[in-house]
Amino acid sequence: MNLVGVDYQNFRRPYLTGMDRLVEPGQFNVLLSHNPDVFPVAAGQGYDLTLRQLYYQMVARGYIENSERSFKNFGNVIDDGRLAGLIDWEHIVDRTRNLRSNGHFDAPSDIMDAAAKSYQIDKWERQPNRVEVWVEKDALVGVIEVICRRLDVPYFACRGYTSQSEMWAGARRLLRWRDAGQTPIILHLGDHDPSGIDMTRDIVDRMTLFSGGVTVDRLALNWEQIAEHNPPPNPAKLTDARAEGYVASFGLSSWELDALDPATIAGIIERAVVALRDDTLWAEAVEEEREGRRLLRAAATRWEDVAEYLGA
Question: Cα-Cα-Cα-Cα dihedral of 302, 103, 44, 83, to 10°?
Answer without folding.
Answer: 140
